[in-house]
Design a protein that fits this description.
Layout: H1 2-18, H2 30-44, H3 58-81, H4 86-100, H5 107-123
Length: about 120
């Protein structure tokens, strides 16, 4: 069993060391940007609304906060590599700013959440 694990680890390290600039290991290819954008949207799906981030349950609030931050970071990574994801990046940054300034209630917060959700839905098309 240990030999199988060691062989798998060796193959993985070799793949990381000798992969090309557009491979998944490099993290810079267009496929990686698409994967980051898709990951951001998968995380975003688990944020029900911005006004739910600051709730009575501290653990749930922290999880939602981290999900918005993580989704925003992934969207930004996608936009850095591929301009097609700039709108998603900007929308996620707006949602993050609203959280940072505690502006999570009202039309602006609902619109920000809806904007990200709409952009994510378009990625599936």
């Amino acid at each position: 069993m240990a030999a199988v694990v060691a062989a798998g680890a060796g193959i993985g390290v070799g793949w990381l060391l000798w992969s090309g600039p557009d491979s998944a290991a490099s993290g810079t290819g267009l496929d990686d940007a698409a994967a980051d954008a898709a990951g951001a949207c998968q995380v975003w799906e688990r944020v029900p609304a911005l006004d739910k981030v600051y709730g009575d349950d501290d653990k749930v609030s922290e999880a939602y906060w981290n999900r918005v931050g993580g989704a925003s970071a992934l969207a930004h990574s996608a936009a850095v590599v591929d301009d097609r994801y700039e709108a998603l990046d900007k929308a996620m940054l707006k949602a993050m700013r609203l959280l940072q300034t505690f502006k999570v209630k009202g039309a602006e917060a609902v619109a920000a959440h809806d904007k990200v959700s709409t952009l994510c839905a378009k990625l599936d098309d």
